[in-house]
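Q: I'm writing up a methods section and want to include an example of the input and output format. Could you take the sequence below and give the corresponding predicted C-alpha cells, formatted cleanly so I can copy it straight into the document?
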Amino acid sequence: DRNLFPMGEVPLRERSRFRGESSSIVQTSFLATILPILLTYARGAPGRIARKKAAWLIAFAAGWGCLSHGDAAVPSFSVGPYLQSVTETSIIICWESDVPSDGSVEYWVEGTQNSSIVNVGSDQRHEFFLDNLQPGTAYRYRVRIPAEGEGSFFTGGFRTAPTEDVPFTFVVYGDTRGSGPEHQAVAEAMGALNPAFVIHTGDLVSSGDSDYYWGIFWESVAPSVGGESLAGNCPFYPAIGNHEYMARQGGYKDEAILPYQSYFVLPLNGLEGEHPEWAERFYSFRYGPAFFIVLDTNRDSDPEYDVGCGPTEGPPDIHPGSPQHEWLVSQLEVAKAQCHFTFVCFHPAPYSSGPWGKNNSLRLRFLDALFRQYGVDAVVGSHDHFYERCETYVDNYRLLYFVEGAGGAPIYSRSFGWDQPGSWMWDELNETYYTKAFDNSSHSFLSVDIAPLGNGRWRATFSATRPNGEVFDMVEIRRPWGEVCLGEAFIFSFEGTAGQTYQVEYTDDFPGSGMEWQPLGAPILADGAFIRVTDDGTETGVPPTDGAVRRRFYRAQELP
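A: Here is the clean output for your methods example:
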C-alpha cells in the first residue's frame, strides 16, 4: 500500500539467547541415535521455546512432517514483534513463531516511500539487531513470516534516541502479574500517548517459569494477532520483581528467572564477564536529557538490607560495597555529570503505606542518602498494588518516590496504622507523613513528560493516569532542583475528601517554626479524592519584578 521499494541491506546481526537452542535439521537416517537425546532434551530444556523446539525436532525426526518440503502448516506469530534497547542508531526487534520459520524485516523512515528489506534465517525466536539508523528519527517497520509466500506480518513503529536534549514522554507501570483484560486496558491507554519507551517496575507475571503466565503477559503488550501493540511501538524496559523469581511449584528459585532473561535483551551492565548470570538484572540507559537506572533489589545476603523477595542465592546484593552498589554509584556519577534528570526504578518501593511497605521493603531507605548525594529526581517502584506518591525532604531537597503497582494485578489496601505517629510512614524530621497522594480505586500508570523551560532549565511533569485517560494526580519538578521562578506556573496536588472544603496556603520562607503562610486564592470545595491547584505566582501578593528566583511551598488546610 505504501509503494515501498527495497534499497538493499544494512549490517545486521541475529542471536539466540535460549540455552541449548539449535537450528540444525535432524536427519531421519540418524533417528536411532538422535531420538533418545532429543527426548531427554525436551523434558529438561529451559524455557518454552527450547521445549517447543525440541518437540518439533522429535516430530521431524519421527517423520511427522517435513517443513523443507512444504507439508507443514503456514507459520504464525506466537508473540508479536516487540522492541528492545533503543539507541541513537540501533534497535532490537524480537518475535516468536509457533514453529521455526525464516522471515523478513522491512523498515523505512516514516513519511518516506523507500524501504530496506532484510531476510532472517529459520528459527522459532528471533532477536533482530537493526543498526545504521538515523538518530532521533521516526521509523516504520514490518516483520513477515515466512519471508516468501503465504504467511503473517506485523507492522509497527519506533523512534531512535536523540543525540541532543529534546522533550519526550515515557510511561511507567508495574505489577501486572497474571492479569489479562486489566493489563491490556492499561497497555492500550499508555500506547495512546505514543511514549518514547515503557518501563515496567516488576512482577510482570505470577510465576517466572510459567509459560502460561508469560503467554498472558505478551498477549497484553505484544499480541500474536491483531493490530499494532504497546511493545511493538515502544521499547520495553522491565525491572525484575519477586514474582519473576517465583517458581510454579512455589517458593523462590533463581532458575525461574531464565525465561525473563531469554525474552529481554537489555543494556549491558559491564559485570556480565565475571557474573554472566546477572545479565538483564540491572542496567542503565540515557535518553536525551534524562538518565535511567534499573536495579534488582529483591534480595541481599546481609539481613540488614534484605527485602526477602527472592531466592537466597543468585540475585545480586545491593548493600554498600556489593558489586551492584558500586555499579550504581558509578552510574549516578555519570548521570549527575551529563544529564538534567536522573530516574531510578526497582520493584520493592521503600516508601509505601501498603502491606509490603510496612515490612522488609523499608530496608531500602538506606539508598535515600545516596540518591540525594547524586541529585536523583524520582524513584519509582511497585510491589504494593496501588498508586502512591511520597517524598523525603532534607536540606531543602525534595526527592519524589512513587509506588505504581496498579498495572493490572488485584488492588491492595493500605495497612492499618500507616497514619499513626511513629509508624513506618512517619517522618520524624518534619513530623508529617511521607505520603502525599494515594489511590487504590482503579488500575493506573504514571506518565512523565520532559520539556525545556528555556535558559538551561527543564521540567518533569508526573501524571498518574487511569485506563480511561483521567489524570488523578499530578506533580511537577524543575531542574536545577533548587530553583522555582514565581513567574512560571507550577502545580500543587493533594489527597482530600469529596465534599470537604480546603484552603490552600503558600509560603516563600524556608519551612520551619514561625514561617508565615498566605492563602492561595479562595477556599476550594473538593469534588473528588484528589485536588490539583495551579499557581502562576500572581494570584496573590506581588510577583517578582526583578526576575528573582525563589522557593515556594504549599499546604492544604481543612476548613470546618
